[in-house]
Structure formats: C-alpha cells, structure tokens
Queue: 4 jobs
Job 1
Amino acid sequence: MCSGQGSQYYHMGKDLYDAEPVFRGTMDSCSEILRPMIGLSLSELLYRPRADRFAAFDRTLYSGPAICCLQYAVAQLLRARGCAPDAVLGYSIGEVSAAVIAGGLTLADGLEAAVRLAELLEARIPEGGMLAVLARPEILRARPDVFAGTWVSAWNFPAHFVLSGTGHAIARVEQGLAVHQIGCQRLPVRFAFHSPLIEPIGEALMAHLARLDYRQPRMALISATLGGDRLEPSPEILWGVLRQPVDFARTVQVIEGWGPHTYVDLGPSGTLATFVKYNLSASSESRVASTVTPFGRAVQNMEGDLLRPVRRQAADPGRSSP
C-alpha cells in the first residue's frame, strides 16, 4: 500500500538508509533522477543532520516526489528479501508510487509526474489545506454550518474522514469542531487535494501526462480513489485519482471480498496500516504490517514476524491474488 501527501517528514526511512544498502542505493538513484528536476539532492535534503528534524516538510515540490521515492525504495528492499506483492494499492500521490512498483510507469516517468504536479500546483493554485476529522459522517448532515465551504476529500474508515478547502475555510472548521469537542488534525499539505480547488491544473497536467510511457502493469494495480477498482495508468486516470475524493473504506471492503490478505504499508508513517485495521471486521483473517515509522523501527519491522506471512504468500501467488 502506497500512502499519499501528508505522511512525509524529514529523516523518514533514515534507519533503513543507514543500515540497508538496497534502500540507500535506490533512494540515491531516485535522487539523481530528480536532481535536474528539483535542483537539489533529495537524499541530502532528507537525511542531512538537522537541528530540528521535526520542522515542517511540506513544500509539495519536495514532499510529493520524496514520498514516491521512499515507497519505491521500500518495495525494492522487500523484493530483495523475497517479498513480492500480488497487488499494489495507491492512495492519492501514492497512486503514482503504486503505478511504478507495478510496472505501469517507469521510475523516471513516475517521478516526473510527481514533480510536474507539484510545479503546477505551486504556480497556479492558491494554497489551501486538508483536515482529518475524527467523527462519523453523520455529523456532516447534523452540522452543515460547521463544514460550509469545504469538501470531503477522503473516507478512510467509519469514524475518520478528511476535508479539503481554502486555508480560511479549514481554520473556521477547526474552530467549529473545537466548540463541539470533536477531534481533528490539520494535515501537513499546502493544497486542497481531491477537491474542485485544484481543478484549474487539470488540462495542463493531463497534457504533460500524455507524454509519458504507459505500460501494462505486471500485477493488479488497485486505486483507493476508485474504491478498489483496478487501474491501468493513463493521463485521464492519473488526473482523476488526484482530483476525485478517496474512498479507502470501500476499497478495503472490496479487497476483503477477495479473501484474506497481508496488507503491507510502504508509506513513511504507517497511516494506511492504521486505516486498514479500523476497516477490518472482527472475523477477518487478514494481517496488517507497517514498514517505515516515525519512531525508527523500520529495520526491526523488516526482520520481525510481521513480514513473515508475506514470504509464505509470495511462494504461492494464487493464495491471495485478486
């Protein structure tokens, strides 16, 4: 599973970068591909010593490509250890990571797509924001005044959805939710992804995406935006999965209908692993594993029991293939 914008932070994956040659080599190769596009070394930006590694890492030109690079590098490390996926799931910008991992896009084309998206957003779209709300969706109907001027951009699990809007609108919703003692969290993103506010870049982005080399994915490529539907990358599809709201809850329901799986979160924060756990029924036989975490346990996760079921399944691809 490949997560989206907002899961990033400085030093993400640093323990793997220091300890795992495959991961380090992949990140450095990605960094060299990106250098002429973003004007700096991504590896140096992420992993150089910092007085405050918890400083905001939210410029889209860097954070979007960085998420793609990290998830691709984790996938390469897992493959080197014999863990081959039966399917890859993408969430938001993670749809680009997933397309590269599944072979539907080359690494260079995937990174170029992430950079061009960021360039267009920064040049043409006023900054906005996204807010995770810890409440059931019924609150949207019960208190429409609180949510005026925003759009639901993701349904993650029954008591967790995300709003997108202008910075002013998001701040107003935060205040309204605080009055009603409803939990929420601002995401570290500068734009209102998955909302009409990014619509103006659609034509220009698709024109760029049309120049990329699309290939038949080597494995099932599943879109969280399309609610579990399989994806074949194209300019229209890639723009659509960034513009339309994510339905992660429905996606997990669809995948669970295929039988038990091991869900492996390649993202830097373990966000999707948490979302899956809240979506699984009590009778589900599926397993959930995080890889990279903000607490620096990626090396232990790679060595621990969590990934052993993946190895067993990889030897029998038919067991959990959709």
Job 2
Amino acid sequence: MTDQIRWINHAGYELTSNGVRIVHDPWIEGFAFQDGWSLVAQSRYAYEDFAGVDYIWFSHEHPDHFAPGVLRKIPENIRATITVLYRLTRDKRVVSFCRKLGFKVQELPDRQPVRLKNDITITCGFDGDDSWSFLVTPGGTYFNANDCVGARWREVARILPRPVDVLLTQFSYANWTGNPGDTASMGRQAAKKLQQMEDQLAAFAPRTLIPFASYVWFCRSENFHLNEGANRIDAVYGRFTDRVRTVVLYPGDTYSVGDASFDSGQAIRRYMADWSSHAGPLPATEQPVPVEALQQLSKKQQDALGSQNALWLLRPLSRSYLRPVKLFLADIDTGVEYSMFGGILRAGLAREDCELQVQSFSLANMLTNGYGYSTLYINGRFVELVPGAFARLSRHFAIFGQNAAGYRFPQLLLRPGYLHSHMARLLSGIAGKIESRS
C-alpha cells in the first residue's frame, strides 16, 4: 500500500504507512515567538482529526513546531491514545509537559534506530537544540531535516541505513536578517538557505523534495520588513523542479508518495495569494512594561543566575567581551543599561546613547524566560542602532538560556557540541562582516 502524506501546515504533516499514522510538528493556529510570526495559510486539520493518530514527533521546542496551545486543544480522550516521540534531553520539559496532558511518551536516543509499530523505524539525530528524523517504512524512507542548520549532511547521509526517498527541508530564513531597508543582508540570508538545500540534495540525492517549515510571515510592525527578502515557494519550486521531483503541499492536500502525476501548481498559486493578502503588519497585542517592573524581574533573574552558575569566572571579561549593552525601549521611550553581572544597571538613557532598540515586553520576556533572547532573534522585533549589538546582547543571556535547558556554568562547556557550535557561529559572524565590507 502506498504511503500518504496529509499536509497540516508550515512544518506539520501526517504520514500514513502500513496502517500507522505519524504526525510531525503540528502547529495549527495562533501566533509564535511572542506573537511575531503568523501562518501564511489557514489550516484545515481539525483537532478531532488526531483521533486514530499513533504518534506525534516533535523536532524541537520552538513554538512553530511544539505548540502547547495546540496540544491542549486535542480532546483528552484522544491524547491518551497517542505516543509522543521526542529526543532524549536533560531538562525533560517537553516530555513532562506531554505526560501531564495525558500523552504517552517515548524518548529517542541520538542517532539510534527505534522500532515503532508495523515495521516502521525512526532515527532521531540531535543538532544543538534541534533534531532531524529519518523514518523507514515499508513504503519508503523520509528524512525530515527541519530547522537543522549546523549538521554536516554528508556525514549524516553516511550513517543512514538506506537511501533517502523523500527529503523535507526548510526553504527560507527564520530569524532577524537586518534592519528595515537592509535588503542586501536579507538577500544573503535567503541565498544561504537555498545553498543549504543544494548541499542537502547533494548529500542525500532524494527522489522527492518537499520544501516546508517556511510558510510563515513576520506579522508585526517591528519585523514586517523581513518579509521583503524571504524566499517564496514559487521561486523555490522553479529552482529545483527540473533536477528533482519537487512537491508543494497546501493545508489539506494529500499526496500519495511517488505519484509522478501530482501537480503542485494549485498549491503554489494558493500560497502566493495568501502571501499577497498579508499586505501590512498586525497591531501589537502586548502591553508596555514599566521600568520598575523590569528592575524587579532583573533582580529575580540575577538571583537565579547567581545561584546556578560560577559567574565570577567570567568577570574579567565584563569590560570587554561582556561589557554592558544599552537598550532603548521604544514603547516606554527610555533606555536601560544591562549586564549579566548586575542586571539593569541604569535607566533613563536617551535613544542616541543606546545600541539596540526593542520593546519593553521583549526585555521582560528575556529576563523571565531562558528562551527569551532566542525568541527575540527569531521574531526579529528589534533594530540594531549599532552594528553587532544583538550579538553582544546574546552573550549576556546565553548562560541563562542554558540554565533553562538544565546546564550550568562552567559545566555546560562540556556539553557535546557546545563549543563547536559557538565557534562556528563566531566564524560565521566574522565571515559575514568581511563579506559585507567587500
């Protein structure tokens, strides 16, 4: 019997094979990343459609893949019949949340095949805080590359037990790529994403390519400009379709895997119409946070940082690599100076004295949640007043983010891949600066 893929939205789909239904990363409705992203198209997958689903696999904890609001709306009696598949983590946040909702849970070790029902096997490979999956069914093989950007694809291809029939991969950037008007930076990031797709095609040589995980738009005034440079699905399809069978699926579409007669034209036209309908940003929904409240949040964050980490080891860097960063909070018309050593040090700064412009609610999120600065980078709701300011800000919140994942400083330096990923990011930033100056 032929495998079938039913499209949910964005990175979400349901694969049916040999009587087993496996849903991947279902984000059905609502906003993501502090209301900075919205789905391009409306979903057609109802919560009752989860009835009879055997497994839900989540690639990582980002809300456009792991959407808590969606999981809560699945009827309780249906949740009890579904097994969540998730990578083995130290913090157990995702699996604990799913168990509390009544799902069964199966944790997946790194790069080790795990047998599911009816002769289906899944292998989950870790890439930082993200993961890819390789699914082997009686009807085919499926590599879900997801948002993994740091993986060495040729090395991954060599460890797979069988060739890849279907490759599903992200086709556009998913984060801040420059200030308003910086079309050159957006263009470089969009081209880089296409090159990553080229690298994956060279490594895996799939029979079918399904571009996905980019069916979103930046929907607020601070980030709306990022839509201008994003790759559109019509151009992506045109680039690859002559070299590999390229399939574009719209919410509600069902694709019989390997069907050479499948026509992606209608899905492409519907996506392009949807993109055109998002002609302007949506109004902000968050309320401003007063400086006094931010200072209270800052004190709590400092208490948490101090109790979990040996920050004194880094204090010699507080006047250079980790010098304070100055943030202008546009919605409350004032600036603050922040450092991981002391939190908010000063308030009342003028905009011309600051390096980064954000909203007060974004700073509140960073002070409250370990994923806060990552959320800000992905939703792109900020402006760099001084080039490189966001990279400096991330240094102050990196350890706080690692604490949320169950790691402490300096022990986190021993985390597999941690130093490698940071060196790769540093070298990438240096290369980008050289390229922009040339």
Job 3
Amino acid sequence: MKRIRIPRRTFLRGTLAGGIGVSIGLPLLEPMLNANGTALAQDGTLPRRFGVFFFGNGRGVEVAKWRPTGTGAGWTPSPLLAPLTELKDYISVVTGMNARLDESPQGHHRGSAAILSGYEFVTQPANNAPYRSTFQKPSVDQLVAAAVGSATPFKSLELATSSRVIKGEGTTIQYISHNGPDSPNPPEVEPGAVFDRLFAAGGGMTTQPTTPAVTDRLRELRGSVLDTVLVDLDAMHKRVGASDRVRLEQHTESIRAIERRLTTMPTAPAVQCDNPTRPGAIAGTSGKEPLAERLDAFGDLLTLAMSCDLTRSFTIQWSGSAGGPVFWQVGATRAHHDLSHDGAGAQDVIEKITIFTMEELAKMLVKFRDTPDGAGNLLDSLALMATSDTSDGEAHSVNDYPIVIAGKAGGALKHPGVYYHSNGEHTNKVLLTLLRGVGVQIAEIGEGNNTETEGATALEA
C-alpha cells in the first residue's frame, strides 16, 4: 500500500461568522515523517526550538540553597531546585559563571543585558529616572528567530505573566526580547489575546487583526474556532492511520480545553506601575495577579504552537527585572524587589518565591515532556534557559549566575542533564552553546574581554 504524504505546513481552515478566517495547525503526523519518525519526510531534520524563562531579582541570598550537590549527571537538586526533580534527566544546572561586563555598576541593567544578549547595554540620559539604558544588540531569542523564524508563521512569541515592570528606566529592564537599541518586542500578558493571534486567518501567516471590531469578534467567537474547521478535520481523519487519528483527537481536545479555560479564566487588573518598587500592600483580591494561571495557559498555548510548528522561539517574562509582582501565593504582601532589599528577615519569603517559581516552571516543562513530537517529545527538541537579572537581588550581584537549562536541543545538549560549577567563566559560554545547539551559525558572542568563541562544553552532547 502506497504511503501517503502530508506536508508539514498543512493547516485546517474555516471561516467564522462575519468572514473572519481561522486556521489550525496540525501536530506531527506519521505521513509528515520518515519511516523512523526521526526526520521530516520532505524537509529534512525535525525542528529545534529555543525558549527563555526569565524571573527577576535573582535566586536569593544563600547560594548553598540553590547549588545542587554532586557533579555531572549524578547531581541532586538543591532545596530551591527541588521542584525540578521529576524532570532531572532533562535539566542541567550551571553555577559559578559571571555576567560581569565592563562598564556600569547598575546590577539589574547589566545582568539583564548580559544574560539575554551577551553584550553591554547602551547608557541613555536618565531624564529624572534613577538610571536608563537600552540593549546594544539583539537578545538571543531574536538571534534564533532570525536564523529559523522564517520557516514558521511566527518568528517568535513574547509572553509575560506579570504587568508590574519598571517602565521609566529604558527598555533594558522593562522587556527581555530586543531587536536592538530601543527596539523591544513587548510581551503579551493575556492568554486570550495569544489564542486569538495563533488562530487568526492563515494560522498566523498573516498579522494579528488590528481593528478593535475584528479583535472583539474573534474573542466573542473564540469558543467556536474548532467548529469552523470540522470539514477539513473530518477529511484529515479519513486520510491518516489509527495512531494519527488518536493524535488528532488529542490535539483537538487540547484546543477545546484551552477554549474552555480562557472562557472562564478571570482577567486580572492590568496594573501598570510607574514606580512599582513601592506598590504597598494589596487589598482584597483586586490586586492579585494570576501568575500561575497565566503561565498554565501559556504552557498549553506554547505546546500547541511548537507542536504545530507555528514558532521556534519564545520568551516568558515570569517577573521583570527589578519588577514589582507581589507573590501573594506564598504569603508575600510586598513587591518582590522590595523584599530583596529587606535584609535577612525577608529571605524566607524570597526563598518561597523562588521555589514557587520553579514549581510553575516545572509544570510547564512537564507539559512539553508529555507531548509527543516525532519519535520523541517537545523537550527533546527544545533548549530553554531559565535565568534572572541578578544572582543575589539584595547585592545586585551578577556573579555566580543562576542558570537552569531544560531540554536536549535535538541531541545537542547532554541527556541526562548535568550539574556544572564553573570557576568564574563568562555566561556567554552558555549562550554560545545554546545558540549553536538550536542551529544558529555563530562564531562568537560578546565584546572585548567578554568575547567567547567556545561554548560551555560541559553541557554539550
């Protein structure tokens, strides 16, 4: 029997009331792959993906509570990293590296620019702010997007769970994704808007609707997105084998589940703070940002986006550099940045925040691990870097940086993962390893004494 072929870029298409086009991408099905499920039948190797998960204000003061014990693949997660235990085979932890650059002592600015781009930031006139700067070079997610983004409907996705970010000190600490100086990629905070964008006309091949009427209409009819493509879906069921029919059913149920969640998900107040370092205590429930709920929804959306090859590069700003989210989930009543400067008495809460952050990151990574992708899963093809703007928020230190790497990057990264403690190497080594691992052809990264031409070989397969 002749084996049918289905192009990877196949979409199910339909039309909402009012003529609004909807397209839904497909997961990897057997007719899209070679006989072993290890490569695309028509386009060669399976795609590799890159992600950044950014949490502001560091890991906490006591480095011993962050550093794992043991070395290599035999490492044991520390108390702050314990939530990642289930994923240990897919996790590598790096400590002891420094993000020290040559100029400004501004810790949050310096750390953000270094770990997200590998270069020094550009100092700008303060304009009555404590300090102001912007990125000098593109952030690493945009280097990936430039290299592989043309193959997908979205070159990159930028997401954020908290809107309480520093807005008056330039783009460096307000945003994590940059194209270059004063050219940030603002993140989307509301999962519903990301859903609308992913399923807009052309499956993301056209830009997001810009008129309020179209956007509102998409939102109103979001629950019926799948119904519009039932004819194409039925035809696809008839073309594929039994195992792929199960995959299609799981895929459509995942979309239905997201639709149901977004229909009932409360919308948090869009708090925009000009000076979020002093927000004070929150009253009642009106100021409680649904950080975990947003990340949960983003995790589902990213699972679909990667499965359907809608994007291969994404960033998640869990909390901003020097940002002001109040982690009420662990009993905090003051902003995270404020707590980091409250001395020893606040460290218990800071540690609880770090553990909570790792818990929510782990939940998202489990979704990726449990989602089939060819002969493997999404974590097999992903290189995700979880990191911060400082190591110790109280001291604004950019030494002994907190770096967690998740995924295999298509076999470029070690599996099982390892613990590597460096003796003061620059964090650019990690960036170089990750970029090369997902297919960015780059000879070096950094400038001056911080230029690196060799990656972090301890992480490489």
Job 4
Amino acid sequence: MRSVGIEDMSAYLGLASVEVNELFAVRELAPERMANLMMVRKTVALPGEDVITYAVNAARPLLARLTPAQRESIELLVVGTESGLDLSKAAATWVHRLLDLPRTCRLFEVKQACYAGVAALQLAVAHMATAVVPDARALVIGCDVPQLARGSMAEPSQGAGAVAVLVGPEPGLTRPEPGAAGYCAFEVADVYRPTPHDLIWDSDLSLLSYIDCLKSAYADYVRRRPGTDFLADFTHLAFHTPFPGAVKGAHRSLLRSLTRLSPKEVTADFERRLTDSLRYPAQVGNAYAATALLALLSVIDHVAPDPDPVRVGLFAYGSGCSSEFHSQQLLPAAGRPWRNSGTAEALESRVQLGVAAYDRIADACEKLWPGVPHHQPDLGMIKEYAAESRAPESLIVLEKVEEHRREYAEIGRAR
C-alpha cells in the first residue's frame, strides 16, 4: 500500500453570523447555560444557499490551487452530510457537476449524522492507499446546512459550514497513521430526524453518548496500539464540537477515567492541547458533518510550526450513533504562516447580524427544505453580503427549484 495523506484543505463558512449571547438574550434562554456553550457567534446560511452551494464553495479554492494534471487525477468524490436533498440521488452528483470534475470519478454520499465527514475521509484514505494509478487523488467534503430548531437550546449552537479535504500521495498537512483508530457504535435515540421538518433531540442523552463513545473509542484505540499514553503521545487533540463546552466536559471525563490529575491540571491540559481546535468551531457553531474536519483545520492553522511530525488525536461522533478516535501525523509544513488557509480572515469579515435580521433570514430559509418542489430565493441579500465580506471572487448559489429540479448559478463579487 502506498502512503497517502491530506494534501490540502479549504472551507466555506458563510457570509453572515449572529452573536450567540444576543440570541440567548432575545430568546430568553437560561443565561447560566451560555457559559457552558463557550461559543462566540454562529454562521447564518442565507437565501440561495443550501448544502450543495456550501460544498461547492468550500472546494473551489482548493481546486483552484491544483494543476490541470492534479485536477484530472481526482478519481473519488465523497460528500458526508445529513442535509441530503434526495432519498436516492447523492448530493455528490450535483457537487461533481458544479465542480466540473472528471467523469472517470467514483462518487457517493455518506450519512451518519456528524460522523459522516470523518467517515468519508477514512473511506477516501483507504481507497487512495490501494489506488492503482500512482497519482490518484480523492476529494472529501463534509458539509451541513441544518434546519434550525428555533427557540430551543439547540438553536444557539446550530451553525452551517463545509470543509473540503484533498487526499493524495503528496501530503503537506497530515498523514493518517495506518491502523491507528478505535471505534465505538451502538443504536441510541439521542438525535434523529424522521422528516425534513422534525428534529428530535435528547440533549442529555446525546452528551452522555458522546462521552461514552469518546472513552470507548479511545479504549479500542489503545487495544489496537498497546502502550499508548494519552497524555504523552498526542501533541494536539481535535474533537467533534457540537459546542466547545461539550468538548471541555468530555475531555475532563476522559482524563478522570485515565489519570489522577487535579482539576487545575485537567484545565491546563485542555488549554494546551484542545484550545487551538476550538477557535473556528466557536465562531461557526455546529456544522454537523463538517465540524470534526473544521476542528482539525483549526489546529493546522493555529499551531506553531514544528520541525518534526507530531501526533494529533482526532475524535469524531455521530448521533445514533457511530464514532471513532484516530491519529494523524501533523507534518512540518502545517501551521506555517505562508500556508494559512484564510479561514480566520473570512470568519472575521462576515456580516454581523442582529437577531431581528437573523430571524428574517431564518424565516426565508425555512421555505427551502429537502423535497420542496418549487422555490425562488431572493438573491439580493447574498449578493450584498458577498460584496461586504471576504467572499471569494465568485460564488455558486441556488437560483431556483422547479418541479424538484435544483438549478444553480454563479454570481460575482461586486466591487
């Protein structure tokens, strides 16, 4: 088997955001729970945006950096999402066309709640490791644009986003360690969505399942790699982040089960190894299948460069549930200022919305749901916000839905 890894990553995290503390206040949610979220703001999807536009807009900067030969070498496209548009047709089919990828390409969609992005990544790594063509590559996109659970405790943490990952034989960012993964899966009704309109969420059960899976998946990792020391062997950690406070609680619970560290030492370990992974998620919210990949990108963009490869422990969890803990080698090129992905600047330049404007946008977006036969979004807002924010030179948007057929268009950034 050949050695493969992550060659490049890029993200699309929206053009607008709302402050989480303002949303808490207007919704009259329990203020003491605000501190537990540890969130700053969250991305707000706009009319004319759906999971396809997010996925395509995330991947386009990455593809623009490829040579024609490298682009032609992409023979696998996997989209991980729980915001699928069709019960039969994969979201990857639209993405494949809009990105103009080669026809000699295998494509499909992976669904397993928030685990889907990392599941897609692992499938792509395994496929590329056994590819016959020497320079074969895979494009993986984790993406979700959730239907908002307005007025509930879930709403402040619901974001939107997409992260694109290029897997190939010339990794510049990370290299997965072969066989270094542990798993945990069992059926549980913590979160499920039986229709496009229903989100049934047991928050306490979901957090308990998340912690159970972290402990069990890590134990399975150690079973496969005896002698692993959680404190010494992972320089950085990146966990799926439904909200940063959930990560802090799960990390504390895991350390209590493995060590005799004092509360002060547990906090110091969290700040040393997990803080960098939370910088982007705290600004975006839960982007479901994209979130664990976003946490990894946050590590890559924020850690200080190291002359030697260092190990990152990545934990992914998807409600229902399936999870894994695996490790990757963070390569020396990662974290250097000259390869910054531009994600931090894009997040900072998003248009800041008040809650009233956020509600008007949410009202408009509620009319677009998987299965809607007809829809005509007002694209004025996305054009306006693209001009105000650090958007790409052009964006793919949903132009209309007619007889269930979604039609997409490209808009330029006005100057």
